[in-house]
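Re: your question from the hallway

Yes, I did run it. Sequences:
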Amino acid sequence: MHMKVKEVVDVLNLKVFSGHDGLDNSIIGGYTSDLLSDVMGNAPAGAVWITLQTHVNVMAVATLKDLSAVILVKGLEPEANTLQQSNKEGIPILGTNLQAFEISGLLYNLINKK
Amino acid sequence: MHFEYRVQGGDFVRAGQASSQVKKILKQLNVAPQIIKRVVVALYEGEVNIVAHAFQGKIYIDIETDKIRVILDDVGPGIPDIEMAMRPGFSTASPIVREMGFGAGMGLPNIKENTDRMKISSVVGVGTRLEFVVNLKE
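Structure:
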């Protein structure tokens, strides 16, 4: 049984910026990268993408790769058109004040415990 | 089936639109998800290359029963050394484009890996044509 995005939001105390329709998306794994081509080439479908990129192309990649959610690190906030796209596609953009290493570790443990 | 899309150089906001539409079409045609994935990765990288490097471009897509053929034709600076451009990690992208997380020199290698045939021809100062084919049947 895979975890849902909303469970991860609750346990890791993440902020939900947008894409509330996708809070029931199943999480298959995670991928941490700030290079879009790296995510494009290597992230598995259903992964949560952890990144510091906030522009709208993040949503293009997330949508094309059927990712379950995006977590922005270090208190970063999505740009306005990124929010719009997230709502339209139903892929949540989440936020944390932690940096990528920390949130990746927490998510890794959480997913692999279940 | 034949489709055409226009791509404007520098228009990062709309980068990925052709890929998104082709993804929908292939889904409707019941193409296997792992094959759609390959087409989408290759096409997105091709689109982003035009946006990041060229002035404008056109994408021609032909979907046949057993394969999809894609031609991305751009008006732009061209590629002086295609062999070098194919090398993973090599990129001529601007600092701004790199800051966005593009221009890591992974685009063309990604395209090569996800297609069954790929060909680049380019004339410096005129433009570049990238053609690729992905087999739709395993």
